[in-house]
Amino acid sequence: MERKKITFTVLAAVVGLGTLLSACGNQEEVKPAASSSPQTEANKFATKMKISMFNQGTFNAAAPIPPREEDIQRQMLEKAMNIDLDMTIPQAGQATTKLNTLIAGGDIPDLLFLKSRSDLAQYYDQGVLADLTPYLDQFPELKKRFAKDSWEATSYLGKTIGVPGYDNVNGISRSYFIRNDWLKKLGMKVPTTPDELFEVMKAFTEKDPDGNGKNDTYGFIGGMNKEGNLQTYGFDSLMWMFGVNPPSAIDVKDNKPVYLFIDPKMKEALGYINKMMTAKVVDPDWVTMNTPDLLDQKLFKGKVGFMIRDARRLEPDYQQKMKEIGGEVPEWIVIPPMKGPYGDQIVERKSFQGNSWAISKKADKDKIIRILSMLEYMFTDKEAYPNFAYGIKGIHWDVVDGKIKNKNSELSKEVKEKYLWVDHYRMPRRGDDAEYFSFQNPKTAEAFTNNQQYVGLTLPGNLLTADPSDTLAADRTRFINESLVKFMSGKDPLTNWDTFLKTLDTKFDMQKYKDTAVKQFKEAGLIK
User: Fold this and answer.
1) 3-state helix, strand, coil in the chain (%, to 5)
2) Residues 6+ apart with CB under 8 A from 387
């Protein structure tokens, strides 16, 4: 497939728009919402400007490209900013090659969407990208739109060289699921602390909560991926109760790095999980749980009372699978994470802001101002927001009883396929916007919203980049993961914890890793 390139031109009138409107049955339905924000004033930018955009941030690179007269979002951007937008959408898997070809030929796009911080830093070092620091104070709404840690991810060598791209989604995939029907049957309350959770898991295992007279239920099941990494499969969520997590979880406190995977509190977390293993409240199949699908099967069968799963498992299609596989739809509820002994109450840490928008160094001051104005409009204009986040008014969303209603879940397959191209513009959608996901079960939206208060800040360790001279990096990480699994499963007693730390230092040169972290934290201004 050839790469797709769209050249947009602003028309004096919206030619051909009537065709689309009449096809939808209501001409008023698909008109973009008018905005009264300063950015959209006709005299804001008197001179029309051409802006080229390299958009690998699209949520669907394979989506067909509509004629300009049907592209509501494109028209909005061009009208609001008085621009001609020339957007290139690279074929999936070929974005880096295409962008490097453009750069090598001197044809650098004015606005580039980059998917990693390493790419952002690399292109800046190559002299491709502009320093945006002198301009951002002119855009207070854009600065407020993203959290401090997101802006830190777009900083490099003391300069801001990018604008955060789209929000990552947090507070849904690692939800605390528990069988409320089992709690009721056993006369127990929703647990709020690690100790209470342990007692609930023990009861779920030993007191026949499903009433079938068989010893076939368990309090918990987690797993690890095929590489032996504990992250994302449930056990890491239990570790967060103690404020720690596996590699490469690094915080900064009192002007020093804190390596959470070897912190003394990690020993406590491993001791807690080992206590679960010893009491046999963990389904022994945990050692084979190396894909999300396998964990879902355990959820559907209904023989485990507590799990860490995606809140979308409350949606109707998953509820149907529970009925088909387990014979019933259990009363699963999503509860707040436990509050640990040190006050930690974390469902997960906010995902690192790897993606970003960058601007070509070839862009002059006026063009930089125009591009930042466009981003501020896309990401902060309240009236424009639903047109980017949800799609076309009257088709993908509408105003019902004075509130915006996302209609995506109601659309037929044919309509969804016809308008796949709206995914090119969804980047402004907020990561905590429940309406964006168009949940069908109100309990899913409630769980997602409630979980947001337990999403911790991104850890500074995410800013670190690999040291090419650190030849022991892969072996060190593997050793840490293997050791944590041995400690929590009881294959290695926790009395050997100090031996583990010493081996890290002597055999795997942990000091080199620490020195690299300190150096990069200083460069980022996180350590003085």
Assistant:
1) 45, 15, 45
2) 32, 33, 72, 73, 76, 393, 425
Instruction: Annotate 135-171 with b (16+ C-beta within 10 A) or e (fewer).
Output: beeebeebbebbeebbbbbbbbeeebbbbbbbbebbb
Distance in angstroms (rounded) separating the CA atoms of residues 436 and 462: 27
∠ CA 474-478-479 to the nearest 5 degrees?
115
* Token pair 């963990």: residue: 282
How many residues in total does the chain contain? Answer: 528
* Residue 261 and residue 245 in contact, taking contact as beta carbons nearer than 8 Å: yes
Instruction: Fill in the amino acid letter for 73.
Output: Q
Closest to 179 measured CA to CA, from 199, 209, 206: 209
Amino acid at 343: G
Contact present, 270 and 494 (Cβ < 8 Å): yes
Its pTM stands at 0.84
Alpha carbon 301 to its chain centroid, in Å, reads: 28
Residue 375 and residue 234: Cα distance in Å, rounded? 37
Q: Which of 214, 383, 201, 172 is nearest to 277 (CA)?
A: 201
Question: Per residue in 313-369, pLDDT tens?
Answer: 999 999 999 999 999 999 999 999 999 999 999 999 999 999 999 999 999 999 999
Per-residue pLDDT tens over the stretch 364-387: 999 999 999 999 999 999 999 999
Cβ–Cβ under 8 Å, residues 277 and 215:
no
Distance CA 120, CA 110 (A): 14
d(CA 369, CA 364): 9
